[in-house]
Each structure stands twice: as structure tokens, then as C-alpha cells.
Amino acid sequence: MSRRFGRAETTRMKAPWHSPAGAPPESRLLASVAEFTHHRDIDALDHSVVLSLAELIAVNSVTLCKRGESPQHPVDSIVVCSRKPGGGFVIEALDPTREGDPLDTLVCAMETLEAISDITDDGNSRLVVPIHREHAAIGALMLEAPDSLDNVRSMVEGFARIYCNYIALLNESERDKLTGLYNRRSFEQRLQRLLTLQRQKARGAAQDGEDKRRPVEEPSQLYLAILDIDHFKRINDTYGHVYGDEVILLLAQHMRASFRQSDVLFRFGGEEFVILLAAQDETAVHLVLDRFRQFVADHAFPQVGHVTVSIGYARITENDYPEIVLDRADKALYFAKQNGRDSVHGYESLTRRGELATPVSLGSIDLF
Ligand SMILES: Nc1nc2c(ncn2[C@@H]2O[C@H](COP(=O)(O)OP(=O)(O)OP(=O)(O)O)[C@@H](O)[C@H]2O)c(=O)[nH]1
Fold it and tell me: Where is this region: Disordered (predicted)?
């Protein structure tokens, strides 16, 4: 299989379940479904699905691709489980932004909602099955094997249906009911995913740098921003909670439309939102956040009219505890609230200018 997107995050795996030698195929199948639906964590579930299928069927590899939220980013994540020549499996998370085949084939199956059965350049059989719910694909499964995969197609489609139902349940527990944005519970896991993706991109960029034919991607930093609606209590008190809720909902929709698909948006509770975003540097992140602040200030909400927001942000590095970064961004937000609201402030620049007290260190806050 020609993989033009880069390799990353390798984990050596054993089969997750053990069915006795000679057990009937039905019990192996049930054992594998029981194993993957045991997971409550979406990344662990994804790994378990590809591994279970690779164990059940004599394949070279099983790929699970998850759909992105915009046409510019049709794929959100890709996980591949490959059989090793000496036995056992390797699971890799691949960079979903690299173009070419097999990404194009996976996207085609997701768009047409039709399974694709073909032969790869190196002569293997390939089966791509869309994972869909209510006429919309949430992803696709792709299998490659030396022999024909026609006889396993209905089983793979069954796996796709079970996976789809189960992921819907897990997704519900990760999302805020009013806005559909991620909730606070999913914050740490999303942050870890983003840091992993960041590492993959850095590695990919280094490889591209060695390969002079490829354009080098500009390095970027990760930032965490906390956005809070100003004087929200007044909105509730003046117009009632229903209009208050509508402001929260519309603001969330504007956030989705304004930020990049790769930025991760949370409603942390009440009228407070968190954004995880990548930017070239502090100037760039400030510009993006201030542009959104200005958009909100200029926008007229139904009935309520003009509303403003305050934003505080801080940089995230690999070694930071999430609580520390949240606390830094919160300090910058507090500064904005104390200094006129309707503004954006960065923790690092406030600290450099000596406008905040002592920088936040691990010993200074309660982690639990
Ligand atoms: N409508 C609605 N109101 C909420 C929700 N969650 C929290 N609130 C209200 O949001 C208000 C937040 O008020 P405060 O924390 O005092 O802050 P504020 O009035 O926005 O003032 P500043 O943040 O200082 O600008 C409270 O009145 C909460 O009851 C919600 O889901 N819907």
C-alpha cells in the first residue's frame, strides 16, 4: 500500500482478547465485539476496532478513518493496524492532512456512502466500507489483504454499524447538550490528542525539510484561550434565561464558523468557552482572537442586541499540566475583566510587562 501520509505514534500490540484455539468463528466474532465495546475512551475504542478486525480476518492492514467537519479537512483522524512479518500487530496514528491515495479512496467512500472493492498498485485486495448513520458518513474502514475480501464484506459492514452506534453514545457524553461543543469532561483527552497531532506535524515537517521537493510546513505553537461573555447576568436578568441560552447557542455557532476546523472548541460551563488553537506565534494568536472579539462586538443578537466578550489566553507546551495552562489563561481573562472587558490579553505578554503578580507555578495552585 502506498501511504503518502507520514508514520507516527507506533504501539506494538497483542490481540486484546483470547478465544480458545479451535473456538467457532461466531464466538471469536462475539468476543471481539464485546472487547471493543468495553472501551469508554474513543481513542482506545478506535485502536480496539482495527486490532479486532485485523485479528479476525487474514489481512495485511485495517485502517479506520474519521470524517472531519469541513470540506477543507475531510478527514479528522486515521488509525492503521498492520500485521508484522514476525507476528503481532503495529497500530499507528497517521497524519490526516496528507493528500493522495488512500486518503482519496476513503473520502470517496464517505462521500458516496458506497463500499469500494478494488486492487491496490501492489496487487492486494482492498475493501473500503463507509461508516454511516442517517445518510451521513462519520468515517470509513479500509482492509487490505493478499486474498479476496468479498466474503467478509457483510461482516465488516456489521462492524461499521456497531461501531457507529457505539461512537454516537460516547460522543453524546463528550458534548455539551445546548451547543454541541465539547464539554469540560473531554478537555484533557482532546488536549492530549492535539499535542500528539502537533508532534506528528513537527516530525512530518522535519521529514519534509529533508525532502527538498516538499514544501516545509511552518512550525506552530499551541494556545489555550478562555472566552467569557461580559455581564451575562444582566442579559439573563433583563431578557430571561431563554434569551440567555440563545446568546450562548448563537455564540457557539459563530465560534464554529470563525475558528479553524483544527481548533478545538469547548463550552466549559455557563457562559465560559475554551478554545485550543495553533498559531505561528503570540502575535498571530492575538490577532485571531481579537478578530473574533471584534466580530461579536459588532454583531447584533436577536432581541438582546450587542454583547461583548473578554478573552484570556496562554501558550501550551508539552510539559505543562493542563490545570496550569488553564490557570494562566484564567489570570489573563481576569485581567481583561478588571480592565474594561471587551478585550483580549495573553498571559505571557502580561507577565513580561509585569502586569500580573507572580507567574503561576505548579506549587501555587490546587490541582484537585
Ligand atoms: N441563560 C443561562 N445562564 C447561565 C447559564 N449558566 C450560567 N448562567 C448565568 O450566567 C451568569 C454569570 O454571571 P457572572 O459569573 O456573575 O458573570 P457576568 O454577569 O457575566 O459578569 P462578568 O463575567 O464579570 O462580565 C449567572 O447569572 C448564571 O446564572 C446557562 O446555561 N444559561
Answer: 1-24
| Ligand 1 mutation target, pool 271, 272, 309, 330, most atoms within 8 A of CB | 271
Q: Is residue 12 packed enough to be buried (19+ CB in 10 Å), middle (13-18) or exposed (0-12)?
A: exposed
Annotated domain spans of the chain: 10-174, 184-364
Q: State pLDDT tens for residues 290-311.
A: 999 999 999 999 999 999 999 9
SS3 for 283? helix
Architecture of the domain made up of 10-174: 2-Layer Sandwich (3.30)
Strand partners, 228: 272, 310
Domain 184-364 in CATH 3.30.70.270: yes
Q: Which tens digit of pLDDT belongs to each residue from 36-83?
A: 788 777 888 899 999 999 988 989 999 999 998 767 778 888 999 999
Q: Establish whether this prediction's ipTM goes over 0.95.
A: no
- State the pLDDT confidence band at 222, using cuts at 50, 70 and 90: very high
Q: Which of 26, 218, 271, 355 is catalytic?
A: 271
